[in-house]
Design a protein that fits this description.
- The chain is mostly helical and 258 residues long.
- Helix content is 74%, strand content 2%.
- The chain has ten helices and two strands, in the order E-H-H-H-H-H-H-H-H-H-H-E.
- A two-stranded antiparallel sheet has the order 1-2.
- The longest helix is centred in the C-terminal third of the chain and has 32 residues, at 211-242.
- The radius of gyration is 22 Å and the shape is globular.
């Protein structure tokens, strides 16, 4: 309480810059990509390239990707805390769902959960007796089975987030979030066409580059888009929280970001 009897403001000043953070994350993404490409050029052994190979799991790129996704979940959760404080029940539960979704994505990225489950389920479906719509769909699906089993869930979650955040986010925050979603969508599209070796064979003839090398480049592009998409969403959520990050003792929030 001040001498005049008015409540002191509890001011949380955030000395950060969204553009600077996005540049740092982009630089890390680009550095990981260039290291992978360099090692791919000079080292034919996949085992020796493993630590920085963006197409493999349980290595530095995977750690960075999962860490970013966990950070997005944390950023969404602190927004939940804000809405709990001001009593906005719908927004609180919506942001809780967003935080839970990205926590699940982080766990999945670190464990390859969706790929492993899709492989097990597709094998069980193929081995089942009789015929069914699901069995026909699995046997006729040309790409990776995780897209058949899990893409409806991911697409629905993405659409619900896009709908809810349309009014929540504005300015740079909104642009960054929807850019992140667009990067994700393009990464999924590249992943869908990845098993189609005829595409790489045709491009290899046209471009004079071995098909296996082309496939590695396209896979790197897919991973880069996915990870940088997460970077965009992380900065978007952090900037959104920064706009909510000051309050007085009565719980009224007044943005005051430096």
């Amino acid at each position: 309480m001040s001498e005049s009897g008015t409540p002191n403001a509890l001011v949380l000043r955030l000395p950060w810059n969204a553009e600077r953070l996005l540049f740092v994350l982009f630089s890390i993404n680009l550095a990981l990509l260039l290291i992978d490409l360099y090692l791919f050029q000079i080292e034919p052994s996949e085992e020796r390239r493993w630590l920085f190979d963006m197409n493999l799991e349980a290595n530095v790129p995977t750690w960075f990707s999962a860490t970013q996704e966990f950070a997005v979940a944390v950023a969404a959760w602190v927004v939940v805390v804000h809405h709990q404080r001001v009593g906005n029940t719908f927004a609180r539960w919506a942001w809780t769902g967003i935080a839970a979704f990205f926590l699940l994505i982080a766990i999945d990225d670190a464990s390859e959960m969706h790929e492993r489950l899709a492989t097990l389920w597709s094998a069980d479906v193929k081995a089942s007796d009789g015929t069914s719509v699901i069995k026909d769909a699995v046997q006729g699906f040309a790409s990776y089975y995780w897209q058949l089993f899990f893409m409806p869930f991911f697409a629905t979650a993405g659409a619900l987030m896009a709908w809810f955040l349309w009014r929540q986010l504005g300015g740079l925050r909104g642009w960054l979030f929807y850019a992140g979603i667009a990067f994700y969508a393009n990464a999924v599209l590249l992943d869908y066409f990845d098993p189609f070796t005829a595409i790489y064979d045709a491009l290899a003839v046209s471009w004079g580059i071995p098909a296996g090398r082309l496939q590695h480049y396209f896979r790197d592009t897919e991973e880069f888009l996915e990870v940088f998409g997460t970077s965009c969403i992380l900065v978007s959520f952090l900037q959104h929280y920064a706009s909510l990050a000051t309050c007085d003792e009565g719980g009224n929030f007044n943005p005051q970001v430096e």
